[in-house]
Amino acid sequence: MDKTLWSEDGIFVDKNGDGVLDGVSLFIDLPEGLLPIGLIDFCARVGFETTALSFSFFEKNNQQVTMQFVQSSNETAATYTDGKLILTYRNEGELTQLLRSITFGDVKKTTAEANRFYSEVKSLSEIWSFSGFGTQIEASPTRILSLNITVEDAMLTTALLKELCYFAARSALYCTEIDFPVTQNNDAKISFAIVQAEQTELTLQRENAICLAGTKDNLPAALHSFVRSTHWSEGGTIGNWEQQQLLASKNEAELLFEQTWTDDSEVDRVFDCLQASSNLDDAIIEIYLSEPVNRRKELSAEWQKVFPQVQSIVVRSAFKTGFHWIKEELLHDLHEDVEKVVISVKEDVNEHALELPIRWIQEMYPIDRYIEEMTTIHSEDVTFILEGNQEPTYEVFGELRNGKKKRIGVLNVPVSRMPYVDERHAVYPSTSAVQIFQNGTLVEEQIIETDRAQFYRYYMAQILPELREAISEYNDGQGHTRPLFDRIEIDVWMSEEEAKLPVDEERISSLEALHEDLYFNTLDYFAQMGEDLEGKPFNAPGGVHPFMHVRIGEKPKARFRVYQWNDQETEKITTVKITFQQDGTLEYAYMNQGKQQIISSIECFKLPENHLHPSVSKWMKNNESYRIVYPDHSYRQHAIPVIECFAPTGERFNSALKMTLLKKTVFIEAGHHSNEVSSTPAIVELLEKSHQLLVKMNIVVIPLANPDGYELLQKLTVEHPEWKHHAARYNAVGLEFAHVRFQETVFREANVYSEILRKWAPDIIVDNHGIPSHEWVQPFAGYNSPPRFPVSYFLPSAKIYGIGRASFEVNRALHEENLEKIVQEVSSAISDTDIACENDYWKRRFVKYGQQWLPEVFPIEEAPGIHFYRQTTVTPTYSSVGILRYPEWVAADIITEAADEVVYEEALDTCIEAQTLFNRAILNLLYRAKSVPNREGAKMIRHRPIHL
After folding, report:
1. Are strands 65-71 and 26-28 parallel, antiparallel or unpaired?
2. pLDDT tens digits, one per residue of 248-266
């Protein structure tokens, strides 16, 4: 037989001109009553050879090839000329053998084998799954169809044969390899049998054994409906009944306990201290309070009147004390004669403390830029000296134009001691205090804890132990893949400073610092609990939702609400039967869930009209050129869209896995951590400008991977729109759901990533993330960003940087070579842009405040115009990372980190630009990469991982 039959010059077309077969142009002129079973095998080959098809084989519409059947008493033979495939046959048996000969050619009959990536059907909802026909446990660029279709002789009609041809073609469409034949193959892994029965129903007799039963008259209509049905993720019916059952089974969390707290304010305690003192006569009093500057000025004037015997009263900030001291008291001394400022800082050397040696430099941030904004002194002329033997915390010197040096001020910052939640370390936050001086000598000092410290001690001493006791009886897996409690909501009302600085995105906010302490220190508390009880941390204790409320002049108070996690065992749902109405419409689905059987009417999934995120919602309404599907719902029941971008074919069914085999694919995840706000609008912008790339590649995108976290972020930003809000970083119950990918879990947002890998087997995975846009400090965790991180994130290190992951062993050299090419491509794209200038600015900031003192804690791995980290101290190493799980075929796995927690307007726009530049560079590199698919009999392959 002429090989052109199975080519673009024969049965197939390239509808979009991308060099890939994506349509079928075949008319099968099947006479009524002619029933060659081999036609099913032929149509399976038709589906296998293309990436897309519609069901039009038996409808004449000017197709390129027409198959005709001519009965003859002389011979059985085939001829193919001028677009006509003429099959001459003596009987149906010989015609079947002829069709198989044309179909298989030299391909031998194969037998199902172990350790190969077969499609499997363990529930009827998996016949037409998100990834095609059947499912696989693990993702793979190969998928084998091993299918045997049988029909009881008495049931076969021309109408039924046509529908079985469509079933075989569609089943074969999604695979990259077929165990031929698909009829009379008793060794096949999946069986699909047509039998006679009074009721028309599809049943799963056991795993991979499917039976469609009915009457001779009703079966064609039932199969017609089922073969054309689509998965619920596309707005179809298949599996929607299981989704609705999962959504209906969710329970609301019940209140476990509630507590309130209140106390005298630190202002009242300072005043009581002043009243009780006998050393006020002719004294100079220095007071430290966690109050806004205007409130502190008011208190200074008020107390000066109450205590007229005092010479003077200055009230300083007890939060970022050194910064405020220079800002409020020394700035006026930095007159035009001062050219440079040198700040000598005491080195913190307490070995049992969590504070870094440069802690007091950190507390000065960003004083150099503030001085630049307020005076004629450039920030580079404000420098630090770290002194190990210095007594005062700070000494500030000015270098004058005449070359002389003068001391401008000296400050000793009071601190208090507090145990850390792990009970092994201590922290020393700056604190409120009263210092009384007479004749230049300190005669009295009273340390008075801040409202924040008083509250935090109560939280550690009362709330956390009570919560620990309440969840002491827990089940296996809780604290790891499921939480110990649903969430704790903490409302705090305090009089604290909240101010934006005229420097970058910086701000003064002691309550934001408390928000971060409550979140991360609570995580560390339960991590230590896990270590104590099981020898491994509880990294999924539950959601921690701190809501901070600024109330100037009011006494501090707080409310704690803890919600219980209902740890019911989740039973996997299996659909075992589908019934049909007389017209063939799907009617009811019968599901087994544990020992319970559920019957559900079959309806289409209603595609969401809007999306939580305004950028995604706007894009979805205005864009019809790409395909939007919904692999799963989040824990809080938000359908999670995935945007699939490929050159359109206009066909009804498409094979994603085969499109990746014949063209390259990149998968980009955005919005995984919801407080990292630039990746979602950036990915939408990227898609609007990527149409021209689709001739050689496919792009698959999750625009918002964590809708539950985004929903929490919207609540948190109502009162404080510019905080970092790390509490919204994980999912609804505070779980890093990346850790439960590829597992059975109630947190189905984790399934989307793995479903995309199963469906598309992408060459490159890109994970768009973010870092804080302004200072991240935690006074009750050593002031630096959380001790759980091996490196510091206390200030931005770049406008954007990259992280590259490589496998530990398999294909490591290739992965590292690909990574270096990506680094070069991204560097080239960013060089000579404003983003490169911003990266250089932030690198100098990062060096000045951290890297020059502690390079291991503040690492830099440089490339031109950008930092790009490859070391495992920064790169994630858990097993659900794509390139670590599938090093045999994933070519690169990249993280982007933009300084976007949480930003707006111009700052957001530059982060979007940076993310877009970075992502576009990777797309361009993959676009240019050479990838040649090969053919081995009934198997399509290409070399993986691709060499960029």
Report:
1. parallel
2. 877 789 999 999 999 999 9
